[in-house]
Specification:
The protein is an alpha/beta fold and about 375 residues long. It is about 25% helix and about 25% strand. It folds into 2 domains: about 45 residues, no CATH class; about 270 residues, Alpha-Beta Barrel (TIM Barrel). It has a 10-stranded mixed sheet with strand order 16-15-14-13-12-11-9-8-20-21. The protein starts with 11 loop residues before the first strand and ends with a strand.
């Protein structure tokens, strides 16, 4: 089926903005602080100045819906083995030269957002599809904050949880609103030098660090971190050492870190794929610096993508390409060998979704969903 619901509004009013002295309107969602004249759009391309206010142009509109394994977000400690209904919109508030989802995040044509759904339809679809959570992903929910918060509220009423997959590039007040609606987040910590953020992302590292510290210390959101290791750009021993020491010292050793392999894409095609040896070396550095859970991703490596007990070293959750195997936890989420609890949001038994990826279309009948 591919019958679309009623068309979403052209634009939705937003809250986070103020007028500046020269008559422009400044968007106050992220550190970019775009100051716009009427008719202009910010760098994200989806927040625009219209009628003396900042409006969101993509409320209720998506680049597509898909049921994924939660491990693909990646989240290894949040409802393992369960399916998550994933969707994104268009645009991004960073300008990463190496973007792996550039066809969505760099889109400047919101008319290509053919899929549409109200928050209530998304919540109902998640229930019908057996999804335990909804993920705001593919591009960054920071820029479609109002839509993400509305969907999360509708999901919470139906017992469905919400997951933000974000670069964490957001200011304090909207940050509290966005993550106050979330149950889990994977934050993309792209590197650990300001030079990298300035040169490759056109952003600032400190803002992302502030988001991570806020999430871990001031909210109940379950947090995991992803760092894409790019050969010759952010994969040096010294930088990985500083990054992992900072996580251990400022966030705590129980925050999982995913070290993932780069492939040439978008505007960074002059570098090769990340060697497996780089990922292994980085994982060793993270563990040596006290991190309890360091994973290798974007490569097939069952041993290094599995979860081990931080006390006795027993393999607790076996993984291979997002599919779960061994489950060595009791009903209370403790190691069956030594009784140490695993960190995260863990249920008595794992889900059995496996590694399937199922595209879906929402239909005009409120909340109905069908495999595409």
């Amino acid at each position: 089926m591919s019958v679309l619901p009623n068309a979403p509004p052209e634009a939705v009013a937003t809250r986070y903005w103020h007028r500046v002295a020269d008559g422009r309107i400044q968007c106050d969602v992220c550190p970019r602080a775009c100051a716009l004249r009427d008719g202009q759009r910010g760098l994200c391309f989806v927040r625009a100045a219209e009628g003396g206010a900042i409006v969101l142009k993509t409320w209720g509109r998506s680049s597509g819906f898909c049921v994924d394994p939660i491990e693909k977000k990646p989240l290894n400690h949040f409802l393992p083995g369960t399916p998550v209904l994933s969707f994104g919109t268009a645009g991004c508030n960073l300008a990463c030269s190496f973007c792996q989802n550039w066809d969505i995040s760099k889109s400047r044509d919101v008319d290509t957002l053919a899929d549409a759904a109200t928050p209530e339809m998304l919540a109902e679809a998640a229930v019908q599809l057996g999804c335990r959570s909804v993920a705001y992903t593919y591009n960054d929910p920071v820029i479609f904050l109002e839509y993400a918060v509305d969907v999360a509220a509708a999901c919470r009423e139906r017992g469905v949880r919400s997951v933000a997959v974000s670069a964490g590039y957001i200011l304090a007040e909207p940050r509290a609103a966005l993550f106050g609606a979330m149950d889990a987040a994977n934050i993309d910590l792209k590197a650990f030098t300001q030079d990298f953020y300035r040169r490759e992302c056109k952003g600032h590292l400190d803002a992302v660090k502030e988001t991570l510290e806020y999430l871990v210390h001031e909210t109940g959101v379950w947090v995991e971190i992803t760092t894409l290791l790019i050969p010759g750009a952010n994969d040096g021993d010294a930088e990985i050492d500083q990054l992992t020491r900072w996580i251990a010292d400022r966030l705590g050793p129980s925050v999982p870190l995913h070290l993932t392999a780069f492939h040439p894409d978008y505007r960074m095609r002059d570098r090769g794929r990340t060697p497996r040896e780089t990922l292994i070396r980085a994982q060793r550095i993270g563990r040596a610096n006290g991190l309890d859970y360091v994973y290798v991703g974007n490569v097939l490596d069952a041993a290094r993508s599995s979860t081990y007990c931080k006390t006795c070293g027993e393999r607790l959750i076996g993984r291979e390409h997002y599919a779960l195997g061994r489950w060595h936890l009791d009903a209370a989420g403790r190691c069956r060998s030594c009784g140490t609890p695993i960190d995260g949001v863990i249920e008595a038994a794992p889900g059995d979704w496996g590694r399937r990826r199922q595209p879906v279309r929402l239909t005009a009948r409120a909340g109905a969903a069908a495999a595409s």
